From TrEMBL:
Keyword DNA repair applies: yes
GO MF term set: alkylbase DNA N-glycosylase activity; DNA binding
Taxonomic source organism: Candidatus Yanofskybacteria bacterium RIFCSPHIGHO2_01_FULL_41_26
EC number(s) given by UniProt: 3.2.2.-
UniProt feature coiled coil, ranges: none
Pfam family, one: Pur_DNA_glyco
A GO biological process held by the record: base-excision repair
EC class: hydrolase
Entry's family note: Belongs to the DNA glycosylase MPG family.
Keywords: DNA damage, DNA repair, Hydrolase
Protein known as: Putative 3-methyladenine DNA glycosylase
C-alpha cells in the first residue's frame, strides 16, 4: 500500500527514520517491449533536511525554481542534480510552506548504495521532480510488514554538508 500524505506531513527527522524498511517502488516503462519493469527495494539509509533554518537544506537559500517543490505539499518528490551529473531523490515533508525533505541515500538493491547510484539504477531523473508519491504510478513508497525498532536505527552526521556551520553536526543521517 502506498504511503499517504499524512505519513509525510510530520516532523522531517521522524519521517526519515520511519522511511527505513519501507519500499521505494519504481515502474520503468519499456519503449521496446511495451512491458514495464518494476523495481521494489527496501530503503536502508536516509537524511533529514529540516527547513529554512537548516543551512544544509537547499530551502535555506529561499524559494527558487529548483526548491519550489519543497515549499509545496508533503509527499512529493524533490529530484535535483548534484555535481552536474548525479540525480538525488528526496521526499517533501511537513506542512506546505515549511520546506523540508528527506534524502533517500541507499536501498537494499544492487548498485543502490548511494543517492546518485540509486537514481541511476532506478532511472530517476528531473522528469520525476514534483510527482506526487502518494498517487503516482511510476514512482512511490510502500509500507512494509517489517517493523523497524528504534534500537535498530543508527544515526550519524549527514554526508557532504561541511559548509553548513553548526548544522553539519546534526545527527540526521539514519541507516540500518
Amino acid at each position: 500500500m502506498k504511503l499517504n500524505r499524512k505519513f509525510f506531513n510530520r516532523n522531517t527527522a521522524l519521517v526519515a527514520q520511519d522511511l527505513l524498511g519501507k519500499f521505494l517502488v519504481r515502474k520503468i516503462p519499456s519503449i521496446r517491449s511495451g512491458q514495464a519493469k518494476i523495481i521494489k527495494a527496501r530503503i536502508i539509509e536516509t537524511e533529514a533536511y529540516c527547513g529554512i533554518r537548516d543551512l544544509a537544506c537547499h530551502a535555506s537559500r529561499g524559494l527558487t525554481e529548483r526548491t519550489k517543490v519543497m515549499f509545496g505539499p508533503p509527499g512529493h518528490a524533490y529530484v535535483y542534480l548534484v555535481y552536474g551529473m548525479y540525480n538525488c531523490l528526496n521526499t517533501v515533508t511537513e506542512k506546505e510552506g515549511n520546506p523540508s525533505a528527506v534524502l533517500i541515500r541507499a536501498l537494499e538493491y544492487e548498485n543502490c548504495d548511494g543517492p546518485g547510484k540509486l537514481c541511476r539504477e532506478l532511472k530517476i531523473d528531473k522528469k520525476l521532480n514534483a510527482v506526487d508519491l502518494t498517487k503516482n504510478d511510476l514512482l512511490w513508497i510502500e509500507n512494509s510488514k517489517i517493523k523497524i525498532k528504534k534500537s535498530q536505527i543508527k544515526k550519524g552526521k549527514r554526508i557532504g554538508v561541511d559548509y553548513a556551520g553548526k548544522w553539519k553536526n546534526k545527527l540526521w543521517r539514519f541507516y540500518l
